[in-house]
Prior knowledge:
By secondary structure, the protein is mainly α. The protein has helices spanning 3-12, 14-34, 40-50, 56-74. The protein has a domain at 9-43. It is built from four helices and no strands. It is elongated, with a radius of gyration of 17 Å. The two termini are 32 Å apart. Mean pLDDT is 77; it is low at 58-62.
Amino acid sequence: MGIGDMAKDFLNSSEGQNLENDALNKASEEANNLTGGQFQDQINQGRDALSGQFGDQQQGQQDQQGQDFQQQDQQGQGDQQY
């Protein structure tokens, strides 16, 4: 089992999910403090969008991105700068 697998397993554990929630809560709280609450709705939307994006869901997105790049390479588009 590689370090990536261990990290994924941790992020999918309840301890990892708690750590994710704590980090997102602290980041959104700090962003709200720095902006004086002026952008609270947008910050909360961003926090909600990021919640759950780690572990299995993140791996699924990375797999899809990898497939997209592989398809571009096969179509001769892989040499483009992004």
